[in-house]
Amino acid sequence: MTSPVKPISIGPFTAPNNIWLAPMAGVTDGPFRALCLRGGAGVVCAEMVSAHALHYANPRSLRMLRIDEREKPVSMQIFGSDEQTICEAARAAEARGADIIDINAGCPVKKINKAGAGCVLMKDPAHLGRLVEAAVKAVKVPVTLKSRIALKRGVLLGPEIARVAQEAGAAAVIMHARAAEDVHSGEPNLDALAQVCQAVKIPVIGNGGIHDGKTAQAFFDAGCAGIMIGRAAVGNPFIFTDIQQELAGRQPAPLDKRRRVEIYLALIEENIARYGEKIGLGRSKKTAGYWLRDFPNAAEVRGRFVRMETLVDIRALFKSLVF
Questions:
Q1: Angle, nearest 10°, between helix axes 158-167 and 125-138?
Q2: What is the number of domains present in the chain?
Q3: What are the tens digits of pLDDT across the range 110-167?
Q4: Rounded to whole angstroms, how far apart are CA atoms 269 and 315?
Q5: Is 107 a catalytic residue?
Q6: CATH classification of the domain holding 77
Q7: Is 58 helix (H, G, I), strand (E, B) or coil?
Q8: What are the respective helix, strand and coil percentages of the chain, to the nearest 5?
Q9: Does the predicted model carry a pTM greater than 0.90?
Q10: pLDDT-derived band of residue 218, with 50, 70 and 90 as boundaries?
Q11: Shared-domain flag, residues 166 and 109
Q12: Is the same domain home to 29 and 146?
């Protein structure tokens, strides 16, 4: 059987392969994006940035738009509820080097939804279409839409949302195969995802629960032109290469504990170099459970780690784990 892994065209942009890193708030920053590209991702998607905050030149949000060449190709995800700020945010991301602009219409977080953004946009497809169209007209790079198959289980909205995005000029749709109410739990609804794929001519990139070659193949079998991996990449940034090997009929080498700790320490050091020791350590600690899983007394080790405030102490802790 021919492997489904191949270059994928999103409007005028062509990605080297169709296995991408999903956006994750507080996770997919520059150092992690660069790491996942080394791990075989075709495109990496940045953590979502508030269009409203960019409109008011919020320093933290502006810093989130920072991109360097090690992080490309990169899709910059923005979220918002009005056309003006979405346009401004899209232009700002394009100016800083984004290869793709992605609009979030799937986030179920209450804080985002109360601002009229994220998955609540699915309630008004016409308004969502206007947001996409405004962004498409504002930039030269391709615009994509990331959404979900439904708000509530059993009430399928994905095909309509995909058609609206296509008519508004989106170059692709990224569809999470769970309802918003499910957040990240439960099995993805691949039958519903297949209906989305059949509804439009633009590429559909499937997302939600992909963690190995078998689950990836199921998404391709549903009709997806590409797939997007989120939490399964945290703790194993080489999952993109692993899945490519599995889909080609080869067994990937497992990432052993020692190598995982070495990679995690290097990522922490990258975060400190970029954000400073306090912020860099703070960001790194958010994902400790993924990186330090399976170690003896893992909960105790994580507890010690999150209380540490210096890189020197963390290096000593990690050395004790693997030597």
A1: 30
A2: 2
A3: 999 999 999 999 999 999 999 999 999 999 999 999 999 999 998 999 999 999 999 9
A4: 10
A5: yes
A6: 3.20.20.70
A7: coil
A8: 50, 15, 35
A9: yes
A10: very high
A11: yes
A12: yes
